[in-house]
Amino acid sequence: MQKRKNKRVSLIIQEGKLKSVYPNSKISRNRENSLKWVGVIKPTPLSQEYEVKLVYRINKGVDVYITNPKELMLYNGKKELPHVYSTKKQKLCLYFPKYREWTVEQLYTDSIIPWTSEWLMHYELWLITGFWNGGGKHPPKNKEKDKTEKE
């Protein structure tokens, strides 16, 4: 039996879909090698707006950063954001690569961007409650406690 190879969505298609859904965003693409999208997401009608940067590099996956506000607030007394790869870079953890929750066969507008909006909604709730209710699995840093526990 032959192993099925992923049918990657062309970056031209990704760019077109991003432009149609987010017409005021900025997109740059280097052929089929990389794509960068910068757009604004407002997770709920009562939320503030967040500027988000999505970066895709072939064979490297997708990275998502919050670029504005430049420094996200932290829950009282906390030194790190919950469920991120980097608090300093504000690089979000949206999926667990090992589980293939996101693949190159998916449109960013149907996966990564809605997941970013969901992460931001849970972030706003975390600011109020101190609990991360966004779930998900995150590669442990120094055998850190489960992120669903009180931060």
Notes on the protein architecture:
By secondary structure, this protein is α+β, with helices and mostly antiparallel strands. The strands form two sheets. The protein has a four-stranded antiparallel β-sheet with strand order 1-2-3-4. A two-stranded antiparallel sheet has the order 5-6. The chain has helices spanning 11-21, 112-129, and strands spanning 26-30, 34-41, 50-57, 61-68, 84-86, 91-92. It has a single domain (11-129), classed as Roll (Ubiquitin Conjugating Enzyme), CATH 3.10.110.
Topology:
Elements: H1 11-21, E1 26-30, E2 34-41, E3 50-57, E4 61-68, E5 84-86, E6 91-92, H2 112-129
Antiparallel strand pairs: 1-2, 2-3, 3-4, 5-6
